[in-house]
Amino acid sequence: MALHSITAHGMPELQGHHDVHHEEHWFLKYCWSTDHKMIAKQYLVTGLLMALIGGFFAYVFRWQLAFPNQPVPFFGVVTPASYNMMITQHGTIMIFYVAMPVLLAAFGNYLIPLMVGADDMVFPRLNRASYQVFLISSVILIWSFFVPGGGFGGAWTAYPPLSAGSQYNLTPSGSTLWVVAVAVEFVAFLMGGINFIVTAMNARAPGMKFVDVPLAVWMIVIASVMFMMSVGPLIAGSVMLVMDQNFGTHFFDPRTGGDPVLWQHLFWFFGHPEVYVVLLPALGFLAEILPVFSRKKLFGYRTLLYSSIGTACLSFFVWAHHQFISGIDPRMANVFAATTVLISIPIAEIMFVFIATLYRSSIQFTVPMLWALSFVAEFLVGGVTGIFLGASGADIHFHDTYFVLAHFHYTFFPIAIIGSFAGLTYWFPKMFGRHLNEGLGRVHFWITIISFNFIWMPLFFTGIMGDHRRIYSFANFPDLMTPDRILLREISSVATAVMGIAQVLFFANFFWSMYKGRKAEDNPYNANTLEWRCPSPPPHGNFAVMPTVYRSPYEYNHPDREVDFWPQDEPPAGQGELRPEGAH
Amino acid sequence: MSGQIIATGRSAAGMPTGKLAVWMVIASEIPIFGGILAPYLMHRIGHPDWGQMAASLNVWIGTFNTGLLVTSSLFAMLAHAAAERGDGPLAAARLRLAAYGGLVFLCIKAYEWYAKISHDHVPQTGTFYGYYFSATGLHGIHILAGVAILLAIAAQAEKGKNLQRVELIGIYWHFVDVVWFFLFHIFYIIR
Amino acid sequence: MAEQHPSHESGGIGWQPLARSVFLTTFLGAVIVVGTVLFYIFAGGEDLIARLIPANSSFAGDIDFVILVIAGIVGFWFFASLFAFFVLLYQSRRRPGHKPEYLAKHDHQLHTWVSWPHWLVIACDLIIIIVAVKVWHQVKQVAPPADTVIRVVAQQWGWTFRHPGTDNKLDTVDDIVTIDRLHVPLDQVVHFELQSKDVMHDFSVPVFRLKQDAVPGRTIKGWFKPVKAGAFDIQCAEMCGIGHGLMPARIFVETPEQHAAFLEDSARNASVPGGQSIY
Ligand code: HEA
Ligand code: HEA
Ligand code: CUA
Ligand SMILES: [Cu+2]
Asked: Phi-psi category of A299—alpha, beta or left, where left has phi over 0 and alpha has psi -120 to 50?
């Protein structure tokens, strides 16, 4: 099959730099590459390292909460200042430096060109720049922990005036560096997002209609669009916050006509869509994994697609549910309570689609499938508890208690950790050309899932019982020091330590398999999507022969077929040339 | 494995890749400016006293600057027309004129800022000035970036290379112009 | 991969029986939901939450009621979904002789599977919204007439409470100002004016189900009516800097005699001169 014409439409932006790379210096290969797969791995590794930092912080302050004011093993005594700094940076890191770079940037980079059948992103150098800007932002964030006064400790939501005045937060440089780091990161993801969207729109393989695009790609693209439409106000807000911090303006200072609640609107106008920005890619992974390991067509491609778009649109109208009791006009709360609760409709449909896919299927409980299935079960807990918070009347009690924390850890953990593990274990053979160890993967899965529920289930109850967030020690509150509450906190903290230790299994498996694992076939799962139609790992340029697409990605067990899968690029019988042997 | 770029040249959505990207850039910039202008407008309504501070802005300078940007945009359009005909050098010349318009705009803006600051109309003295300086500053950065890109593309167009980019920078330049239109109205005109 | 043996019941099992069974389950579910709600109402189910944390204000029970209604509704969906999920996991496990089915009906027919639950979810949402908004309205939008008015001022990192004194009027000479200790009379409607001197704080009394942010530059009004005497925690529930965890206070709900004694006591040996503004 001939190469598809490069100059079919429009004017191509051909640049000379993109020659076939011969023996390169390692620096050029690993740090200066424009190959989307290398950039994806860079994002992945950075995200993993940041997850270690964020996870370590979680362990430290969890331990402090269960055993107040005793030295934490491997850390020392936690002061109120260091406690605040650690929870703030834990939240920031987990969302902006783990969930976003891994789910969106790493998998977006890795999957989009492969799944739409292109050789690379449409703007490879912009892509590289995006990672470099992101790296700079990570360095700024970590640097901010060590400046005089310490890292910022005003919570990841950074409400002014606390975040705006160093006389209030006592971290003069830490708070500025925090805002700058986050704003710089947004720029990096804007660059990446534009690349994702344009690649998926324009660089699709011939024949790939909108309904032939694998849902993982769709979800990442929808997430990128949401990010693009929601982050602008927060970028503007960050500029204003930095000015307030350093140049004496008073945007958020009530004494001179500013408004502290304005920041909350800017933050949550972004902050709420943001949670779906990370949710959608994880749902996309599920949409790939569930059909493959249940050997069944996805139940309702369009339902899933439209529900996701519906969720995305609705998510722009719910932000003030974080502000019910923050002094906004109480009448406004009624509107936002209604929109918030209504978001259960599209998300319920998504969940039902996943569950319905299992109907009369043939499920293989592989490690990626275990992760994907556990996502459904765990996310349901997080989702339905969101309804308690969206109901304005109930949120009066729940706001800023551990119930909120348990709610969003039951959403974020499935998304950022379970979703990442699902994606990573599923695409590992493609990424590194070798298989992960199944046995080790299973052990790691079960320990992680069980300890996760032991961490967060008890905290729903301490939340109802009045434990508030961001309190470094409950010892100052007589009502909160009853034995049952203390026991619940201790269970949670010990489970955190167990989970932390269990991750050793994952890292051992990851690095051992990368070099020593069983060699992976090109299409080990007999999957349909295009990334499985090129070698494992794919070379620079991805496909030996650029694919043409003939059908939707989820045709498993089609009655007309001998084999139970039907690759997207396999020409229909009696049409097109046979593909050359060995290029499968 | 192929050594050629396939992705960049494809156009499954029926629009050249570069153009699509420019529209995406604009789509992501609108919320940024919106994020600063919407709060400004809301507070402006709540603070009639800001009118006095707004009165201290020089409408004539603003009007002149508006005219400057419109003219500059016009040259960008003419450059596009020249590029369509394949006339690289003419396109380059017109792009440069557009860029000079942007530069003069910046100089005037700098003078205006200087005048404000020397009258002690600084961001610290009132939130109105805070918004004024941030919004015009953010816009100024866009002008500066636009000028740099205009000149870079002019250099390429001169040699007849990448003529399609003339249109792309034109789109962006119009956008920056439109943003200024908004700024001009809500800061200078509304009293 | 999957076994190629013919299915034991090939064909015939399309979306229709499926939709019917889903409809049945959801219908049963609706019955359960209504039943649960009625149960809560008539069996004094508010106790379920009150067993975890006392309900010591007049509206605490109403808020607990919202929580329980939601618990009943989403609890049903949650368990029904998980039930379906695990049943399907078991039924569809990979085994010899079991062939997955290719559902090739048109999309909108398949949609029946989700469209019935979908309508029921909308109905449930409406119930939740109505219940929630009603209680919200009652707690945050309107207030019964005040028996007494207090002022609560938050700052880094402590609370100043201004009580109206014996004349029951704020900002008069006999005002009683205390730090970190709030005294309120039992069974009286207390209105509060909430202020902050520096950053955001939050006046929260979990046993009252009461929570309100204090925003610098504003005075936010609210109310509560304590229905049980005793001393309870006040927490600051908004991150306010290093001392956020060190901002505890106590609220003392006093019987008329106790409260009279408190007023008298404070009038006699006022540590902070009454009436003099301390902020
Ligand atoms: C990715 C993460 C994620 C996701 C997906 C969600 C999903 C939802 N969240 Fe959550 N949320 C957070 C992350 C997330 N949230 C975070 C981080 C915070 C705290 C931020 C901070 O303050 O630090 C937060 C806080 C938060 C609040 C503010 C609480 C407070 O501070 O007082 C509220 C209030 O409305 C809320 C609501 C919801 C709702 C209604 C959903 C819905 O999308 C859930 C919808 C899903 C379902 C409902 C389940 C599936 C449906 C069914 C099984 C059908 C049956 C259901 C019904 C009939 C209702 N969330
Ligand atoms: C993605 C988001 C995410 C994730 C995964 C987590 C995970 C965890 N979080 Fe946290 N958390 C937040 C986001 C997240 N958190 C946010 C936003 C806040 C609010 C901050 C604020 O108030 O400002 C918060 C706050 C918060 C608090 C409240 C502090 C307070 O208010 O006083 C607590 C307390 O228990 C806590 C605990 C934990 C624990 C025990 C885990 C454990 O579940 C995690 C244990 C993790 C590990 C052991 C590492 C895991 C994995 C790897 C190392 C491998 C990574 C692999 C891949 C990515 C493929 N978190
Ligand atoms: Cu005051 Cu937190
Ligand atoms: Cu939200």
From this structure: beta
Read off the tokens for B90.
């003419």
pLDDT digits (tens, 9 = 90+) for C90-102: 888 888 877 887 7
Residue-number span of the structural domain to which B58 is assigned: 15-189
CATH code given to domain C148-271: 2.60.40.420
Say whether the peptide bond before residue A161 is cis (omega within 30 degrees of 0): yes
Residue type present at position B96: R
Instruction: Supply the CATH number for residue A405's domain.
Output: 1.20.210.10
Q: Where exactly are the structural domains of chain C? A: 15-93+100-141, 148-271
Q: Which domain CATH number covers B182? A: 1.20.120.80
Could you tell me the pTM of the whole model? 0.91
Round the CA-based radius of gyration of chain B to a whole number and report it. Answer: 19
**C249 within ligand 3 shell (Cβ under 6 A):** no
Q: CA distances (Å), A36 to each of A19, A127, A534, A542, C44, in order?
A: 15, 7, 15, 10, 61
* Averaged pLDDT for residues A220-234: 94
- The answer to whether A344 contacts C212, with C-beta atoms less than 8 Å apart, is no
Q: ipTM above 0.95?
A: no
What Cα–Cα distance (Å) separates residue A466 from each residue in A67, A386, A403, C80, C233?
Answer: 18, 18, 9, 29, 9
Total domains in the fold of chain B: 1
Give Cα B159 to chain centroid, integer Å. 26
The one-character DSSP state at A363 is: B
Q: CA torsion B106→B110→B116→B121, rounded to 10°?
A: 90
Gap between the Cα atoms of B124 and A156, Å rounded: 27
- Report which DSSP code applies to C5: S
Q: Phi, psi (5° rounding) for residue C177? A: -115, 125
Look at A353 and C13 and tell me if their CB atoms are within 8 Å. no
Segment B67-99, tens digit of pLDDT = 999 999 999 999 999 988 888 889 999 999 999
pLDDT in tens, A519-575: 998 999 999 999 999 998 998 888 888 889 999 999 898 888 888 889 998 888 765
Report the range of poorest mean pLDDT among A136-150, C56-70, C82-96.
C82-96
What is the distance in angstroms between the Cα of C266 and the nearest Cα belonging to chain A? 25
What is the mean predicted confidence (pLDDT) over A262-280? Answer: 94
CA nearest to C14 within chain A: A360
Given 3-state DSSP classes, what are the helix, strand and coil percentages for chain B, each rounded to the nearest 5? 80, 0, 20
Q: pLDDT tens digits, residue range C114-155?
A: 677 788 889 999 999 999 999 999 999 999 999 999 999 999
Protein residue closest via CA to atom 16 of ligand 1: A408
pLDDT for the residue A573: 75
Is the backbone peptide bond immediately before A537 cis, with ω within 30 degrees of 0? yes
> Measured over all CA atoms, what is the biggest interatomic distance in chain A, rounded to whole angstroms?
79
> What pLDDT score does A580 carry?
43
| B94 within 8 A of B78, measured Cβ to Cβ | yes
The 10 Å Cβ neighbour count of residue A544 is 17
Structure tokens that stand for A84 in this block: 């605040």
Domain count, chain A: 1
Position A583 in a domain? no
Q: Are strands C176-179 and C201-205 parallel, antiparallel or unpaired?
A: unpaired
Residue whose pair of structure tokens reads 């943001």 in the numeric block? A274
- Which residues constitute the domain of residue A263? 36-533
Average pLDDT over residues A89-103: 96
Single-letter code of the amino acid located at A523: N
The residue whose CB lies within 8 Å of the most ligand 1 atoms, and thus the one to mutate among A277, A307, A353, A404, is A404
pLDDT in the model for residue A5: 33
**Which residue reads 């034109």 in tokens?**
B170
Average pLDDT rounded to a whole number, residues A115-137:
93
Given a cut of 70, whether residue C45 has pLDDT beyond it is no
Does pLDDT of A459 surpass 80?
Answer: yes
A471 vs C contacts (CB less than 8 Å): 235, 244-245
How far is Cα A25 from Cα A33, in angstroms, rounded to an integer? 11
